[in-house]
Amino acid sequence: MYPKSVTGDAREVVKSEDVAPYHVEIDVEAIKEQERIEMWHQVAGRWLWEGDFEISRRMVRNAVAHRRYSKEFEQLVWERCLKNSAPRKKPRVLYLVDAFLFEEERVPFHKGFDIKEDQIMQALIEHVRMNAKSGKYTSESSVNKFKI
Question: Is the confidence at residue 7, as pLDDT, over 90?
Fold first, then answer.
């Protein structure tokens, strides 16, 4: 199907995709996901959350041990959780539907787990690991100590 703006020879009917002047593929799922993300940001921007999830040191320890990461990395994750929840005594994340807010970013749940707490903790650990690997935390002293 050609847009109306295409005229003349370009509007010829072609018998196969190989000879077509251009080919457009639309990823419907990607468009739907982008819309979900935009809607999530709109609702979260109004501070309308489904709930919050308190993070304990033991939860971090167990989740990091599950992935077989080092104790130093566990310390980094715990420090990031404390820093993310700076004005509060206990670290926590706010969640809405299938994602949570951490370090001012939307982090989707890890769908490889059944329990919401595990989905949040594993996604949080992966988020910290990827940010540390990309160099986001290089200015902090604890980053240089751990190995992933």
Answer: no
Beta bridge partners of 54: 92
Eight-state DSSP code of residue 15? S
Distance, in Å, from the CA atom of 87 to the CA atom of 77, rounded to the nearest integer, reads 18
φ, ψ at 107 (rounded to 5°): -120, 115
pLDDT tens per residue across span 72-106: 999 999 999 999 887 888 999 999 989 999 998 99
Q: What is the DSSP letter of 11?
A: G
Q: How far apart are CA 114 and CA 34, in angstroms?
A: 24
What is the spatial distance between Cα 128 and Cα 126, in angstroms, rounded to a whole number? 5
CA 65, distance to chain mean position in Å, is 21
CA 107 to chain CA centroid, Å, is 3
Of 134, 79, 68, 133, whose CA–CA distance to 103 is shortest?
Answer: 79
Q: Is the pLDDT of residue 131 over 70?
A: yes
pTM beyond 0.85: the answer is no
Strand partners, 99: 96, 108
Rg for the chain, CA atoms, rounded: 22
